[in-house]
Amino acid sequence: MAARERALTLVSRKEALESELSAQFSILSSNQSTMNTPLVDKEGFPRADIDVWAVRHARVRIIELRNDLNALVDEMALALAAVGPADASSASSNTQTGTSTNAIEASQENLSAFAKVDGVAPGSPAATAGLRREDEILSFGRLNARDFAQAPRSLQPLAALVAEYENRPLDVVVRRDGSVLTLSFTPRSGWGGRGLLGCHIVPVSRQNLSENDPKVTTGLSTLLKANEHD
Fold first, then answer.
1. CB of 106 within 8 A of CB of 182?
2. 53: how many CB neighbours lie within 10 A of its CB?
3. Distance in angstroms (rounded) separating the CA atoms of residues 109 and 87
4. Each residue of 130-162: pLDDT tens digit?
5. Does pLDDT of 111 surpass 60?
6. 208 or 157: whose pLDDT is higher?
7. Contacts of 116 by beta carbon, 8 Å cutoff, 6+ apart
8. Full-prediction pTM beyond 0.85?
9. Rg, the chain, Cα only
């Protein structure tokens, strides 16, 4: 198999692993659980309000998938070393940042913003990456406005992606004062505050909604500032 074909095959495998990882995190979310949520009640019995077996299975699978992804990224680095500079640059954008080439090209074509930055904590990974309040988000890793068309009030897929890329770089394309910028984030815990990014992001439609709408405020409060998957 030619070096370029092998690299593309590995990229496809990576996308498949990422897709399954997102699906497993969705299982946790549907059970209002994280990787650390207690599965027993105060009396030591399995919780009756969640599917304990499904949560346990999802947690185990998430750990396996994360390990597989780390190994695959290392394998892709070796494969890319054997590919020409132009092809390696294109493929490595997928390997290192989780941002597809199509997403980057689309952002340059003036993608519609699906979310807006409402606040950034000082010293946070978001602040280090250069994110600012009022930035409009055009794409977040592999996600863009099309991924939120059916549920514009929910940014849960974004939270799941952040958790998926903990301690790995993730590209975010924003529009600021009419200019389109690409910022590189590394979601991580232990930076001194809550969440993996330390920022507050709201749907762009929020300006047309009540500030007290529980469907909006509840989802946002657990998104990126509250570390849902660490």
1. no
2. 10
3. 22
4. 999 999 998 888 888 888 777 666 787 888 888
5. yes
6. 157
7. 134, 135, 136, 137, 201, 202, 203, 204, 206
8. no
9. 18
Averaged pLDDT, 9-17? 82
3-state secondary structure string, 112-147?
A: CCCEEEEEECCCCHHHHHCCCCCCEEEEECCEEHHH
HEC string of the chain equals CCHHHHHHHHHHHHHHHHHHHHHHHHHHHHCCCCCCCCCECCCCCECCCCCHHHHHHHHHHHHHHHHHHHHHHHHHHHHHHCCCHHHHHHHHHHHHHCCCHHHHHHHHCCCCCCEEEEEECCCCHHHHHCCCCCCEEEEECCEEHHHHCCCCCCCHHHHHHHHHCCCCCEEEEEEECCEEEEEEECCCCCCCCCCCCCEEEEEHHHHHCCCCCHHHHHHHHCCCCCCCCC
pLDDT tens readout for residues 19-60: 788 788 888 888 888 888 899 998 999 999 999 999 999 889
